[in-house]
Write a structure and sequence with these properties.
alpha/beta; 5 helices; 4 strands; globular; YeaO-like
Length: 119
């Protein structure tokens, strides 16, 4: 399977394959038609507390945030992660869609790594 990441504000394309929104909140200003989301996996997104902490202190080392999110994925979200992996196995191309502007320091990077370990 080809697993990719893409911002929700970028144009959706047929080459994206199965598009999965991995944010807890719908991206501001993006219509459902424009987003072309096949699955909204909001349960796998970082907890509200973690999201608030990250946005409140954006200068915090990304690895601290990433470690906390990995702990959530290994703990209370482990079942949701396995269920998502099971769903994604059915598709040859999957694009994880997220809203954050920073393409290298966000939860999509961490989730992609976790999914690759399961797939």
């Amino acid at each position: 399977m080809d697993l990719r990441r893409k911002r929700a504000y970028d144009t959706a394309s047929a080459e994206d394959g199965f598009r999965v929104l991995i944010d807890r909140l719908w991206p501001r200003g993006v219509s459902k038609e424009r987003a072309a989301i096949d699955l909204w996996a909001k349960d796998i997104a970082p907890s509200t507390e973690l999201r608030h902490d990250w946005h409140a202190a954006p200068d915090t080392d990304f690895e601290i945030y990433a470690d906390r999110y990995r702990a959530e994925l290994a703990g209370e979200d482990a079942e949701a992660l396995r269920a998502l992996a099971d769903e994604l196995r059915q598709h040859p191309i999957v694009t994880l869609v997220y809203a954050l502007h920073d393409t290298e320091h966000n939860h999509a990077v961490v989730l992609e790594q976790a999914l690759r370990e399961l797939l």
